[in-house]
UniProtKB/TrEMBL annotation:
This is D-alanyl-D-alanine carboxypeptidase. Residues 390-474 form the SPOR domain. It comes from the Bacteria. PROSITE patterns: SPOR. The keyword Glycoprotein does not apply. PANTHER family: D-ALANYL-D-ALANINE CARBOXYPEPTIDASE, TRAFFICKING PROTEIN PARTICLE COMPLEX SUBUNIT 12. Transmembrane segments: none annotated. Signal peptide: none annotated. It comes from Hoeflea poritis.
Amino acid sequence: MYRASFGSFGSVQTKNSLAKTIRLLAAALLVIVAGASGAAANPKYAGFVIDAKTGKTLYASNANSLRYPASLTKMMTLYMVFEALDSGRISKKTRIRVSKNAAAEPPSKLGLKPGQTISVEQAIYALVTKSANDASTAVAEHLGGSESGFARQMTTKARALGMKRTTFRNAHGLPNSGQKTTARDMARLGLALREHFPHHYHYFSTRSFKYGKTRFGNHNRLLGTVSGVDGIKTGYTRASGFNLVSSVRKDGRSIVAVVMGGKSGASRNKHMTDLISRYLKKASRKGGGNLIAKGPATTRIVLPKKGPVPKFRDVTEVRVAMAYAKPQKTSSFPIPLDKPVVGKDALIASLNKQRSVVAPVPRPKEPVGAQADIAQTSSSTVDAVTTSSTGQPSGWVVQIGATPTRQAAEQLLAEAKAKTGGMINSAQPFTIVTHRDGEQLHRARFAGFDGKSHAWKACKALKKKGYGCWATQQ
């Protein structure tokens, strides 16, 4: 009897335990479904998690859908700053002058005044922590000549990094209907920052920054609260919702996660924490990373407001400017963004791998408008330019670019000579026409160097002024 009763009790207990387990599973499932339906019900939401060692996608929801980046934009602004630092164009101590335009940007901001200066390193800290819009615009104007010009450089850099659906219109992320990105593209940018600038990446883990008498805390609340998180950036506008890109490294695993369109900062942070908890453990401990190839270096570009021929300033990526210039009716050789036409790789390819077809260059008709300005500058600051129709100088030469028009090449040479001075003053500027893959290009070169050492020193001087340069013997 006792045994029978014990058996009956055991049976009841087993049934109760089973029922409890079912209820718990149902509750858990309800939470998961509710969370998924909540994200799906939010039209701004997008999420993405990638294994930073292997490149494997661990989670994706609306990952390729266009979204507003808001202040995630500053990730690219900082990428461009780091690139300029590494190229020697600027140093951390370089002073950036604040324009009226930069000072007038709405918050979040440091409160910079027109005419004031801020160091590059202070600007970096301001962008990372305070997400300062005034500092962002000042940086853009310093590096790009204008914020719109800098935004074009940012877009071109995005393409070079494989961010196929990203377009930038400003350097800070304030509302602009044309400024779009995707969660997947932002993850690529996060990976690129980690991989390409490990010596600068530590800025993203800064918890606070003191400027003047004020200390600004980092908007990224996951720093110091979620184990393994070492940066990167938050963002918010009314149109974008609450955005966050997080880099996580823990126990030999590494991921980059993106949440876009959160309904509040708190819900965004919780969702990011959940993604990290769920997917970090699924990341591999093997794999070398290095998932994002470096794009070509970008320097300052200034385009005219009117006229078909752009006026270049500190241009090594002339194709970038031409991609955004008004199409020329007389040109039948458009330059696609994915084909670099200047710099070391392009020059080696054109000199060693391709048979250049040299064609005579007819003198252009009397220029008008913006063309007249360029022609006047060229004639006043450049010695008589040797073209391929009158022969090429021999010996060591240095090339600083290649453009779709001879006028643009001459302008590039003129400004390089005026800004660099020194041994470049005695160098002979010349252009040479080549046809490459159905595109007509005009190489901008200097000649007249006393051997290899002289040419290399000239290149070094040009690079200090922000120009791309490659020396070779012909």
